[in-house]
Amino acid sequence: VQLQESGPGLVKPSQTLSLTCTVSGGSITTSYYWTWLRQPPGKGLEWMGAITSSGSTYYSPSLKSRTSISRDTSKNQFTLQLSSVTPEDTAVYYCAQSTRLITIATRTGFGSWGQGTQVTVSS
């Protein structure tokens, strides 16, 4: 399974960040979990949320009020939306795939990762 993140590299404060992860080599409707993580500059990895093959979603409690993860099965993509962004949301954003639900910030346990996409929040 290969994953590729896409989206704008620059977002203005208070706007909504929207990123898409395109999956190839496998279907997002199979028995996998599809996850978003991020890593701010100089900081550790942060788990943001996940969507299951059946469409159920899980979110980090600290980001839940601003985060939405959805999917487009016709395009084999899943999407992250993060609202009301601030400069503290500047990070490299990753999508990842696993065979079990992982809700912690870790690089282990995921079968595939996207290469990551830099998002900067700045006016």
State which percent range the strand residues make up. Answer: over 45%
Continuous helix count: 0
Q: What is the distance, rounded to the nearest whole angstrom, between the alpha carbons of the first and last residues?
A: 36 Å
Average of per-residue pLDDT values: 96
Helix-strand category: mainly beta
SSE series = EEEEEEEEEEE
Helix content: under 10%
Low-confidence stretches: none
* Radius of gyration from the alpha-carbon trace, in angstroms: 13 Å
> Mind describing the biggest β-sheet?
7 strands, mixed
Total beta strands: 11
Shape call = globular
Provide a concise account of the structure shown.
Helix content is 0%, strand content 48%. It has strands spanning 2-6, 10-11, 17-24, 33-39, 46-52, 57-59, 67-72, 77-82, 91-98, 112-113, 117-121. 28% of the residues are buried.
